[in-house]
Amino acid sequence: DAGVTQSPTHLIKTRGQHVTLRCSPISGHKSVSWYQQVLGQGPQFIFQYYEKEERGRGNFPDRFSARQFPNYSSELNVNALLLGDSALYLCASSLAAGTREQYFGPGTRLTVT
Amino acid sequence: QQQVKQSPQSLIVQKGGIPIINCAYENTAFDYFPWYQQFPGKGPALLIAIRPDVSEKKEGRFTISFNKSAKQFSLHIMDSQPGDSATYFCAAGGYGGSQGNLIFGKGTKLSVKP
């Protein structure tokens, strides 16, 4: 069975640009959460989506946005990129919004120059 | 404000040893405490998780001990192997109505020497 998939694997962007990261959850899972992991730190929560609705938002600026599609896949968008946005962006899927167990994908490594 | 404190930052043990990683939390509304294992270049993998109504949980060589009154929990790895060398993260979740929000510790880099 396929786990959580994310694309692209790596990405290099310039300051000021925008980026779109994509995630497909485990088949049958309806909730997707996004996390940012800076090198040497634990993942930090950005958003949770369930049934196409935002269910939670972490302490990130409005430059960060996301959405979920009818097939439960999700996109994370970041505008006006800053050097500090360089990180591993992780997507986690769970059965439903109230399900505790979260399963992470391999992540997208974003480098902002 | 860090809500989950993890220690030690790094740990070196010999093969067969029992590394112990500790975490402490502040928010008593947390009701779910998972441990994740992460290898370089990979996403975190869910290892084992516990809820506050249980004091200990074992899955294979991995054991979580939970002390609700002290607001602490720990991961023990029995008969550790070089393949267990990875970074381990504790986390806490379930508070504030946003159940998708896991709060992670800063991680412990474990090295198991042959």
Give the rounded overall mean pLDDT of chain A: 94
Biggest sheet character of chain A:
7 strands, mixed
* Biggest protein-protein contact in the assembly: A-B, 30 and 26 residues
Overall outline of chain A:
globular
Subunit organisation of the chains:
heterodimer
Computed over alpha carbons, the radius of gyration of chain A is 13 Å
Secondary structure class of chain A reads mainly beta
Contiguous runs where pLDDT drops below 50 for at least 5 residues of chain B: none
Strand content of chain A: over 45%
> How many alpha or pi helices of chain A?
0
Average pLDDT score of chain B? 92
Residues in helices of chain B, as a percent range: under 10%
Kindly name the structural category of chain B: mainly beta
The helix/strand series of chain A, from N terminus to C terminus, equals EEEEEEEEEEE
The helix/strand order of chain B is EEEEEEEEEEE
Report how far the terminal alpha carbons of chain A are from each other. Answer: 37 Å
Helix content of chain A: under 10%
Describe the global form of chain B.
globular
Number of strands of chain A: 11
Report how far apart the termini of chain B are. 38 Å
